[in-house]
Specification:
By secondary structure, the chain is mainly α. Helices cover 88% and strands 0% of the residues. It has two helices and no strands. The longest helix has 48 residues. The radius of gyration is 29 Å and the shape is rod-shaped.
Length: 66
């Protein structure tokens, strides 16, 4: 019986423990927060560039009108 139990314990070495899962969930949450922050920065840049382009186009059109 003891031999079968040790063989089973050896077979489950590659499985994750509750602690491993908790660490993985924590890492995923950290990555999501970092990704959200970086996406916000990129979105702000994109909106800023679009506004600047629109202002530039309006300025050129006004110059061409005169």
């Amino acid at each position: 019986m003891e031999e079968r139990l040790s063989r089973l314990e050896g077979a489950y070495e590659h499985l994750a423990t509750k602690e491993d899962i908790a660490l993985l969930k924590s890492d995923i949450a950290d990555l999501k927060a970092e990704l959200f922050e970086k996406m916000n920065v990129h979105m702000r840049w994109m909106i800023g560039i679009q506004i600047a382009s629109l202002v530039g186009i309006v300025a050129v059109l006004r110059l061409l009108e005169q």
